[in-house]
Amino acid sequence: MCYLSFDRNQMTNLQESLNKEILLTNSRGSYCCTTVVGCNIRKYNGLLVVPVPALDDENHVLLSGLDETVIQHGAEFNLGVHKYQGDNYSPKGHKYIVKMEWERVPAITYRVGGVILKKEILFCKHEDRLLLRYTLVDCHSATTLRLRPFLAFRSVREFTHRNGSYNGIYQEIENGISTCMYEGYPKLFLQLSHKNQFCFHPDWYMNLDYPRERERGYSSSEDLYCPGYFELPIRKGESVIVSAGLNEINPKSLRRMVEREEAQEDEMSSFYNCLVRSAHQFHIEKDGEHYIIAGYPWFKCRARDFFIAMPGLTLSLGETNLYELYMKTSAKALSEYMSGKPLSVEVYEMNQPDVVLWAIACIQQYAKSEGYEACYSKYGQLVEQIIDYIMRGKHPNLYVHDNGLIYAKGKDKPITWMNSSVDGKPVIPRSGYIVEFNSLWYNDLCFWAELLRQNKRAPEAEKYREMAIEVAASFKHVFLNKYGYLFDYVDETPNWDVRPNMLMAVALEYSPLNRAEQKQILDVCTRELVTPKGIRSLTPKSGAYTPFYAGPRRERDYAYHQGTAWPWLTGFYLEAYLKIYRRSGMSFIERQLIGMEEELFYHSLGSIPEFFDGNPPFHGRGAISFAINVSGIIKAIRLLDNGESA
Question: Out of 66, 206, 223, 477, which residue is the most buried by the measure of CB atoms under 10 Å away?
């Protein structure tokens, strides 16, 4: 039986099926994303969504949708689904869906009387091209297939509406057409593998409704342009392939192209295999550089996420070569930033003060995987450069105080991963001595000392070891409170909020705390922060606790880190749990992972969303696929595997 599959009842129930989205990506940053029934629910949905560098650095929806119609004996059965304002759906093609299965590619099967039609969706790995394969599995009489494209030609941040500025002209090409609605956009080439008739019948479809945008407090209405439709006969057992791309191709090559792309797809045959496939979806290659997209559908490559996600998305999968490609790009970004040069690579938010701290922790994972000698040879110079950069106070917002601790200013602008702001001010003004910054700093110093020691630089290693001892003493003095947990940050006064950031002082390889202190912190987190879907960003005991992320943008920004649960922290929590409880923690880790597995069947199928509500029923929120979450869960699975085989 197919691991990722849904039956007729699940597919025809729109309350359920509209919460399941298909996400297909390529190495260029383009994607295809829609619900399993083909009904778009957000402005980021579309069958062909691509970057248009000539316009801006955003993605743009060219082909929003493609409606299929089966015609027999003059009767038309439209398999498409569109939502209009007022909770109206037209047509209601979802009622013809029999099942959806995803082994290598998503496949939706429709049944209309005696007609059984199977649709498979592919997205080319290294070019901007959508491929749809329609196979007529069964029929009892002559059947015609009609395909109606819906065009947007707009940024994912905007909507398109009926206007007089669009260009409705098209050019005929082999087995299809090319068209471009607005100046500055690339042409869209729509071609079929079989000869067909294109009927030019231009029209605007008005007031399509995107409920996810309305839920987020945004405008939710759009108009889409349809230039006409393709029509062709299809015989029993025959497959027709549709290509939507940015250049014209030979239609005779489409069958081989589909077979080649299908063979390259990862199998979706288990919890782990789905996460492996998801890990690969975050990989972007541009101008010879390799990036990790922070999440789909709206994030770019963010420096902090880059370093947090990298080990789990590569080393935990045995993909050392990919780690080295990512690190080559991120090391360039680090070196250029620390030298005060303009960045030649597209890594955003390099100025965040903890980025350099996470970078060393990321390199530390390479040392654990590939050995300290190999790590020193490849990245020793970079680690030394970062340590020197921090020690000399060259970072504009990272200071080493006389007590050895790291200090950063965050009252006026968010500087940590808890980065929501309202009216330009951080919701959580984490400033001063920040707990995870200093946990990372202590760990990084210890790692650097060990790297030096193992590579015959003992005198220097001793210098940093002694520095780490001083940091550990100051860390306890500043952060450890009488209730057995750590202050979240300390400036003029300490912040008493119970938050998950203190987990880093336990989970990282080197901790400034003794075992009893680590256990106390872990127990507090277990009692107050752990959920089946991740680690809460704030204890429910706090008066500021806001577990549900809903409502207008302002309300959501206030709730973003005030109780919502974050799966990426689960990886660190389980690492800490295993560190304290060793093999006796195996069954607990397994139970936590079970809570995450069921999420593969919602949001972006086969992946993990950005975060969850902090209270039951723990709805998934934010981006439908998030890199550091996938990385964290993969690391947790590896922890479980390694623990069971020990």
Answer: 66
